[in-house]
Hints:
This protein is mainly α.
Amino acid sequence: MSRSEIVPTSEKTWKWKTLTLGAVIGALAGLTAAHLLIQRAENKGETPKLSAGEGVKLGALVLGLLRQVSQLGG
């Protein structure tokens, strides 16, 4: 018997809703970030650029955010 046959449907439903909501929020946050980056570049009359240092800072911020989110439910 597989794990999917044992798990109640209600448990699958809330997990699916949570994953879907997280994906939508993540996509919207990413689109907003890209839009802000484009606006900043257009105001300077340049193409969007992200230096290695800015990429590292952004990665650290994202990891910090994920750590905070992981502590919400616990």
